[in-house]
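Pipeline run #58 for the internal structure catalog. This entry was flagged by the ingest filter as a single-chain record with no existing model, so it goes straight to prediction. Upstream metadata was stripped on purpose; only the residue string is passed forward. Reviewer on rotation: M.T. Logging verbosity set to normal.
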Amino acid sequence: KGGVFAGIGVILLLYTVILLFSDIENSFNRIWGVKKGRSIQRRAVDYFALILLLPIFAVLNYSLTALIQASTGPFDKFSYILDPVVTQVLNFLPFLVMIITLTLLYRFMPNTKVKWASALIGGIIGGIAIQLFQMIYLNGQLWIAKYNAIYGAFAAIPLLLLWVQMSWFIVLIGAELSYSAQNVRKFSFDRETKNISRRFRDFFTLMIASVIVKRFAEGETPLTADQISMKCKIPIKLTNDIIDELHKLQVILPTPTPDDDRVMAYQPALDINLLTVNDLIEQIDKEGSEDFLINVEGDFARHWNALMDTRMSVYESSTDVMLKDL
């Protein structure tokens, strides 16, 4: 019976850890604007590696911090022997462990390609911040334990919850910094992107769809979102939004790049000889729900017919223009 309960406990623990990693990945993916998570096979490999490595880094970091912070630590006994430089290096070790841990987390957890330099920036700032807060937390625990043995034990629980909450908050800030460092240009024209006119969004959509179709027609390598943004001179944030819209319309399909299967390039999902400007504009207009209570053939029939007549005039005027010919 003991073995059965132990097995159930291990299974529940692994299930909890996998859910935790999945939530962390989803949070990082939202920061990076990634719509799709890892495949099941990729998650199994990556999460198994994290299950093996992260506890080692966590125990090492916490142990080093506790030893250095404790007044009876080994460094106090031999501080007169150790060279001051060596002492400073030993004091810096917990910071180094935390920086390495967060850098690896920011580099590999998002389901997209993160540059080492960008991950390191977030890892350094986040690692130092979280380590300083951990030192404050440990000092607070030691002080409360000495102050009152009874109430100090009760105070340990809210302090632990506060430490967990603040640590997660710092981790997310570090992820935001990594994203910002790698995508500084995404913040250009941010206000204009949010307030873009309908016709200019349609214009950019037409440009992006045409570039993807023409490269496919010419037998060239499909472009990634960053490459499309650079080629069309469209802000990358708006480029990603339009690409996501074209994907939902089933006009384009993502395909993994040879260098990194987490980075997607894009190619047509339909016969390029049938893709016209008319078809694209019509699909954009019809995207979304039209299931509302209003009866378009009732009191507002004139409004609906006027709109449809205008739309049809646009469709008919662009019927023969192929995307590949633009």
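catalog note: The first strand starts at residue 223 and ends at 224.
catalog note: The chain has a mean pLDDT of 82.
status: ready for reviewer M.T.
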